[in-house]
Amino acid sequence: MITNKTDYKKAPKIELHCHLDGSLRPESVLDELKVIESENADLNVDKITELLTVPENCSSLVEYLSCFELPLMVMQTRRSIERFTYEVFQDASEENVKYLELRFAPILHTKLGLSLHEVIESSINGMNRAKADFGIEGGIILCCMKNYSEKAAIDTIKAGEKFIGKGIVGIDLAGPEDEGFAKKFIEAMKLARTLGYNITVHAGEAASGKNVYDAITLLGAQRIGHGIRINDSQNAYDIVKKNNILLEVCPTSNVDTNTIVNINLHPVIDYLKDGIGISINTDNRTVSNTTMTKELNLIDSVFGLDMDSYKKIYYNTVESSFASDEVKCRLKRNFEEYYHEFLGI
What we know:
The chain has a single domain (13-343), classed as TIM Barrel, CATH 3.20.20.140. The chain is built from 15 helices and eight strands. The protein has helices at 26-36, 45-52, 61-65, 69-73, 78-93, 116-134, 150-160, 186-195, 210-217, 234-242, 251-256, 268-273, 292-303, 307-320, 325-343; strands at 13-19, 97-104, 137-145, 168-174, 198-203, 223-226, 246-249, 278-280. It has an eight-stranded parallel β-sheet with strand order 1-2-3-4-5-6-7-8, sandwiched between helices. The longest helix is centred in the middle third of the chain and has 19 residues, at 116-134. The protein is globular.
C-alpha cells in the first residue's frame, strides 16, 4: 500500500457529476444580472455569493435547490449559456480536472424564447471553446426534470439527438426525488436508449435505495447520481455491485442537503472497500462552495485515502465515463504519468 501524502490539487482528476447552473462564478452572475435588470446594479459580489451558496442550516434537497433560482434567471440567452459553460470548464481545468461531464436541464433555459436546440448548441459551443483553450476533455449531459412531465423529457431527448457524439454524451433525470419516480419516465428513457444516449439517473439521494433499483431495472441507468442510500435496499445494493453500476458520489453536497447528517457517517469508503464502483464529484461547485480538490481532501481527512485507493477510484471513473475509448486511453496515460512521478520513477 502506498501511503505517501497525495497532493490532490496536482493530481489528475475526473468529474462526472457537476451541474452547470450550480457552478457559476458570482462575478459573472453579477455581470449578467446587470445586463438584464439594471435596478439590481447595486448588488455586489458578496451578496451574489450569499444568494448562490447553500445556507449552513439547509434542511433538505428541496431547500438546497432554491439556490438555483438566480442562476436560471441569468442563463436565458445563447451568449450567457455559452459563457457560463466555458467558465465552468475553465475552472475545472485550473485544478487539473482532465475530463468533465457537465450537466444541465435545457428546458429551464427557454423562458425568454430560446428553443431547446439553441440552448443545447450554446452549451456545446462554450465547452468546445474551453476544450480548445485549456486542453480539458469532456461532454454535456442533458437533464430531464423529474418534476416535469414525461413529454417534457421526451422533448429534451429528441432535441439533443442530433448532438449525440458531437458534444452530448448522456441523458439524466434530475430534480426533487419522489419515491417511485422511475415509473413516470419509462417510455422517455426507452426512447433515449433507442437513440443511443448513455443514461445516468439521480436516485437514492433524497429517497430510498429502491429508487436506485428502479432506475437500473426500469430505466436502464448505467450510472447513478448519488445512490448513497443503496444500503437500505438489499436488491439495490446487489444489482449495483453485480452490474458494476458506478455511483457518482458528492460528499459535501450530501451533507448540505441533509442526506447525510455528518460527513463521518458517509458510506462512500465502505462502498469502495466492498467493491462498489464510486467516483468523487462536486455536484455544484458554487452552491456547495467546493472543488474536486476540496472533495478529495475532505474524504482523505475523514477516512484516509491512500494512493492505491485513489488510483482505484480514478480508473473506475474512467471506465464508467461516457468518454470515447480514445479519450479514456488518454485519461489513463495522464494518471500513469502522475503515478510514476509520485513514486519518483
